[in-house]
Amino acid sequence: MTLNPLLWLHLRLGSNRRNIVVVPAAFAVLVIGFASFSYYMVEPADYGAVASVWLAILSAAQAAFLLVVGPSAIRRAVLTDFQTGMIESHRLSPMSSFKIIAGYLTGPPTQAAILYATSLVLGTYFVGQYARSLNLAGMLSVPVGGWYFLQVSLLFVAFMVAALVLLGALATAGKTSFIAVAVVIGIFGGWAAVSFVPGLALLTGILSGGVLLEFIQSGRFTGDPAVIVLALIVQFALGATFIRAACRKIRAPEKSLFGIPLSLVLLVIWGFTLVGGFACVPQNQWLFSEFRDLGFAQLICSTVAFLAVGLFVLVAAASEGFYLDRAAVLGAARSPRRQRVLTLVPVLLGVLTLLAMSLMCNWMMPDQKAAVLGAFRRPAIVVAMLAALVLSCWLDYCLVYAAVARGKRILFVLIASVAVLKILPLAADALIESIVWEAAHQRWGGQGYLTGLSPIGTLILCRSGGTPMWLGLFVQALLAGIATGLARRARRGLAAGTTDACNSGTAEAGKEVNGHVVGRR
């Protein structure tokens, strides 16, 4: 019991020994009872169909145990520790940060893990029955092996989800349920998200799961088996990154979720996932055949997804820049070299985004990328796209710095920036075009000018170029200049000791702002 005290603590708090035994036993009895009744009601020739139905039921139950019940237990454990103050005891304990995180990941979801193991045993029986119904007695290892490969894929997804939920719980004191958010997104737009961002099919295991299910049913791979390995690598890498961030957060709540190096690692893994999604499309047409005409839309949406994760890099850089400036105000030696490096982060992010975009374009299907590659062959268009990306990153960097310096919520500032400066111009342009078409049955003469005001619009207009793109780029430069002025004003206020964050840093160290504390480090 001394291996990990947190494991045993949360195991005892989350459930007693009776529940650990009774709940899985009751689940097994229910499945066996209803399955026996199902077999009794059909002819022996239909046993395979019954086994197939029960495999689907057990697969849904396994997903619920590992992706909903287990992570929810982790979040509740973190919430309880914050409410009772036990989190401070954990931080002051001699246990390493990794040991604390491992305790959270293994203790609270024990009940869900035992239920999953029970369903795994039951599923092995049903998959054997299904194999015999297909006259695959001599190939029994094929469907059974495919079933266990599918379990490995599910476990890797569960590891990534549990690590993400734990990190989010530590950042929000357990108040935010990422599982509920994911369920809502999945219900109202999950498939649309996968169709427009192919990398999500790789990240969530849809591709690898589909390949393995086909392997179980037919005894052969009809899709690309390499996608299974690629998905496992991506999911493990992201899960490990989330765990590293949680280890950083558990002992230093004043820090942002990801430091600059760790956020860059996260961004590279995410970029690899997005590019891998495009690479998997030609070999897995069973999933993407309905979206052959969405090539350019997939490219733009995946680029936007890359930029969204890149915001973690900008937040880390802007926060560190603020802390360095405040330390200098409080008497510490300035580090001009470090400051220059931080100001280059938005430029680096813009270059990485354009590189990711070009790699995704390179892996598009041949009939999709011809028109897009034409834009990349024009130097002026490439310069315009790079300028739009760098200006967008620089604007967000300056806004985050000003928000941190003034003690404002970073999340609110970023959401407002994205909604007003990046999405609203596109929506307004599309709305006006729709209204003009419905009213006069003709195209709006000013179409594209509002779209060009957004950096996303610049990427959309890159295939055609023209005045809307260049005029919009000029407006984006003006907005970036305004954001630069706000950041400089905040820095001058910090030097004068008049900003809210500077005053709170000496008076109330520990004021939390969007997952990190604006206070004395």
User: Would you tell me the overall average pLDDT?
Assistant: 83
SSE order, as H and E? HHHHHHHHHHHHHHHHHHHHHHEE
Record the strand order, biggest sheet: 1-2
Radius of gyration from the CA trace?
26 Å
pLDDT below 50 for ≥5 consecutive residues: which ranges? 504-521
Number of helices: 22
Tell me the distance between the termini: 35 Å
Form type: globular
Which class best fits the helix and strand makeup?
A: mainly alpha
Q: How is the biggest beta sheet arranged?
A: 2 strands, antiparallel
Q: In what range is the share of β-strand residues?
A: under 5%
Share of helical residues? over 70%
Describe this entry's structure for a reader.
The chain is an all-alpha fold. The C terminus is likely disordered. The chain has 22 helices and two strands. Helix 6 runs antiparallel to helix 7, helix 12 runs antiparallel to helix 14 and helix 16 crosses helix 18. A hairpin with a 2-residue loop joins strand 1 and strand 2.
Overview in brief:
Helices cover about 80% and strands about 0% of the residues.
Describe the secondary structure blueprint for this structure:
Blueprint: H1 5-14, H2 17-41, H3 47-84, H4 86-92, H5 97-106, H6 110-133, H7 141-172, H8 178-196, H9 199-203, H10 206-218, H11 226-251, H12 260-280, H13 285-288, H14 295-329, H15 336-343, H16 345-362, H17 366-376, H18 379-405, H19 410-440, H20 455-460, H21 467-496, H22 500-507, E1 512-513, E2 516-517
Antiparallel strand pairs: 1-2
Helix pairs in contact: 1-5, 2-6, 3-6, 3-7, 5-11, 6-7, 7-10, 7-11, 10-11, 11-12, 12-14, 12-16, 14-16, 14-18, 14-21, 16-18, 18-19, 18-21
